[in-house]
Amino acid sequence: MITNDEQLNQAVERLGGMYRAMAALRAEVLPVNARNFALMAEGPLDEIRRMQAEIDAYAGVEAAEEYDADVWLRLYGRDIGWPNVATSVLAGTLEAFRKGMQTVAAFIATGQVTTGSRLAIRRACDMRVMAFRPGSLCIGLRLPDELDVDFGSNREKSLGHRALVEYLKVAAWVSSEEPLPDLGQQIEQSPKRRVLLSALKPLVPRPGSAVECVEISGRSVPDRRTIRLRREAYRRLVHAMSERPAEAEEVEAYMGRLGEIDLDRRTFTLREVADVRAVRCTFQDELLETVRAALGRRVRVTGSRPSKGKYAMGAVLRVSQLEVLHDRGSDSASRGNSV
């Protein structure tokens, strides 16, 4: 690592010597045997790249590129590096990022989940590759020039920038290893939450994939904190996608005859209920034996289900308490288990 100007001058001199050695090798070997030239040049080329990276870091080239990119993607994994990387890894990562941004931008623009996007949306999310860095594969991406954002002004951000920020917010949440506020509090609208999680999913490394970690940094990342999407984050994302948003619930109680138990799904149907034909119920393992014993008998069940929202219609009653009733009246009852 270069730490002062004297070391910089020495590094530049050594780099010039490496280039002169390469030129001599080219003159002597390349005309005779191109394959041997390529093999003999591997070592000098690696050293040239290493020395150039150190010079760039000290001279500020790396810092200038850092700011010039809206986002940096760095991939970690076996056999992943630059300048030698599988095209499937490179293309797959860029395509996952581009399509994820495009999905978010379409939702912002239309308020709907769409299967296709207008040309303007596709252009807004078609980020430019402005740099590759040696070592682990590191890609600098920038929003299209015609949609660049003036970060020093108060002008409204472009659609591409808004989509990028929303995309990175959910990436930061999924990557977090410490407890954070519920995702539903950060993203209030349930459809939007689903869109963002689905848009991010293709970028997150899956168990068994070649990519072990995707690191995201750059000026557009919230709080300029580096985001690290590891394979463990994939399970968190899938779990978040399967969660239903919290809905207002009401406690309800019904009396009827217990029938049609599905032990695998932990459900049963309550028959002969006043005012309704039947009530579908689900229960936890703690009530399993009580439910078995109550098959065909009159019972009183207490539970909850959503009272508002899209999940209220036809919702299953989640039973928390079950009582077996005597057939000659409900005044004398044997109390069952409760959870």
Task: Write a structural description.
- This protein has 339 residues and is of the alpha+beta class.
- It folds into three domains: 5-59; 67-242, no CATH class; 249-338, Beta Barrel (OB fold (Dihydrolipoamide Acetyltransferase, E2P)), CATH 2.40.50.320.
- Helix content is 41%, strand content 23%.
- The chain has ten helices and eleven strands.
- It has helices at 5-29, 34-59, 61-68, 87-110, 119-124, 159-175, 183-186, 190-200, 231-242, 288-293; strands at 71-76, 128-133, 138-142, 213-217, 227-230, 249-262, 267-271, 278-282, 298-306, 317-326, 329-338.
- The protein has a five-stranded antiparallel beta sheet with strand order 2-3-1-4-5, sandwiched between helices.
- Helix 6 packs across helix 8.
- It starts with a helix and ends with a strand.
Features of the shown structure:
10 helices, 339 residues, OB fold (Dihydrolipoamide Acetyltransferase, E2P), 5-stranded mixed barrel, 5-stranded antiparallel beta sheet, alpha+beta
